[in-house]
Amino acid sequence: MLVGTGSDVGKSVIATALCRIFLQDGYSPAPFKAQNMALNSYATPDGLEIGRAQAVQAEAARVPCHTDMNPLLLKPNSEHTTQVVLNGKPIGNRSAYDYFRKEGREQLRQAVCEAFDRLAARYNPIVMEGAGSVSEINLRDSDLVNMPMARHANADVILVADIDRGGVFASTYGSIMLQTPEDKARIKGIIVNKFRGDLRLFESGRKMLEELCGVPVLGVVPMFKDIVIEEEDSVELEQKHRSLQQGKVNIAVVLLRHISNFTDFNVLERDERVNLFYTNNIKDFEKADIIIIPGTKATLDDLYELRRNGVAQAIIRAHRNGTLVIGICGGYQMLGQTISDPDGIEGSIPQLPGLGLLNISTVMTAEKTTKQVEFEFEGQKCKGYEIHQGESWPLPPPSPVGREPVRGKQTANTQHPSPITQYGNCIGTYIHGFLDNPSVIEYILKPFGQKSPSKENSESLEDFKDQQYDLLAEHVRKYVDIDKLYEIMTS
After folding, report:
1. Max CA pair span of the chain
2. Measured in whole angstroms, how far is the alpha carbon of residue 157 from the centre of its chain?
3. How confident is the model at residue 407 (pLDDT cuts 50, 70, 90)?
4. SS3 string of 241-300?
5. pLDDT confidence tier of residue 14, bands split at 50, 70 and 90
6. Is 329 a catalytic residue?
7. Is 132 helix (H, G, I), strand (E, B) or coil?
8. Catalytic residue among 66, 258, 319, 432
9. Rounded distance, CA 356 to CA 252, Å?
10. Does 66 qualify as catalytic in the annotation?
11. 473: CB partners within 8 A, 6+ apart
């Protein structure tokens, strides 16, 4: 089990590496995280929902993702409330105070332990991951994901520390010393992560850390930039704000407060023809070639903010001037005429007008849609997945604006829209992974005269990601004593 001195120390990436390393060494690994808090989620093959990080780790292990890998998922609705997803299905919204109360915790504890037991019966080893800091002693009685889960699984624990943020000695020592004697004895190793510079300069520090903590340092892993692994959190998106570039297609992704599934844009971001950036600056939308409104966990709240800060009006003006506007999931809902929430599924806003770029009307519903989908675009078979609350219904179309509609014909409101709804220079879809498909990317870039990459240099997304997992495994093998790790696991 990998636990951390804090959040964002790199537990998920190390866990991904170990899943691939164990697979390469002839084992049948699978990932497990009892409780995950993330807006970046994924639909399993059987139409249920888990955290994206565990889906990525399952890919590294080359096994189908399953809710047993992440039985409890928390998706924040606001600063104070979160949607609780148990075994892939929402069971309601709770405040942080209510969620962490002792009442009802044992039922959740039983559910996550049963999920682990089912997983452990099918795979070996299980690569477990904790959450946040392992030393939040005020939450010890209600903790479901860190040391109590390690005790249930009888797991050896490796502590991951982030040296890049500073204070690695204090955070590592404190994380270990704040454990109970029983839990402290479980911590068998330390991995120092995100090192920058010459490793020889930390050799004395490594020895000091071992002497201080009484635990061996299994490795010091340098920061990497040339390996592409999907991120779990959106904390760094604001830093992905590049200036507009001549000679490239400038794609502005609206930086929503509750942005979800931002991995929808990873393929575009890597395309050498594209300059993709995240922004809520009105002037950026005036100059962008393509504007994308991403998914969100709080569609009405984010739409209200876009109207308040002028971004909604800027998108409408850009659309009128011929800019292609794409909406995905919650962004698709925003492109319609109205969004209503009569039962307060999302919160206290009962209804808002949309941007009016597509003739759909959305009603929020308690039942959540989660499924993997296949669709056809420009004659090519494509795939993606849906995770959303709310149903969108077509309205009678207006006069065409900009490019003529080529798909997603909208007729009477007695049927659902097709998977992709396009009218004029506006495309909307509920499908996450829509922009992972080559035929979609070529279609949206074609008007800008951008030629496709040569077939010799092109590769499928699946092949690219598989190669990145191998590169990550090679990187971690180089700096972590895997033989010592096996010795710990088998002793």
Report:
1. 75
2. 25
3. very low
4. CCCCCCCCEEEEEECCCCEECHHHHHHHHHCCCEEEEEECCHHHHHHCCEEEECEECCHH
5. very high
6. yes
7. coil
8. 432
9. 20
10. no
11. 17, 20, 21, 24, 60
Reported as a single tens digit per residue, the pLDDT across 33-87 is 999 998 889 999 999 999 999 999 999 999 999 999 999 999 887 667 888 999 9
For residue 193, the cross-strand partners are 162, 221
Instruction: Provide the phi-psi class of 235: left if phi over 0, else alpha when psi is between -120 and 50, else beta.
Output: alpha
Cβ-based neighbours of 369, under 8 Å, separated by 6 or more:
386, 387, 388, 389, 430
Yes or no: say if 479 and 220 are a contact pair by the CB < 8 Å rule. yes
Please report, to the nearest 10 degrees, the dihedral formed by the alpha carbons of residues 366, 40, 254, 425 taken in order: -70
Q: Is the pLDDT of residue 397 over 80?
A: no
Q: Which residues pair with 384 in a beta bridge?
A: 373
Short-list 470, 19, 54, 474, CA closest to 222: 474
The closest alpha carbon to 295, from 379, 352, 237, belongs to 237
- Of the candidates 19, 65, 213, 329, the residue annotated as catalytic is 329
pLDDT in tens, 80-108: 788 899 999 998 888 766 776 766 788 99
User: Which two structure tokens, joined as six digits, stand for 64?
Assistant: 């189908």
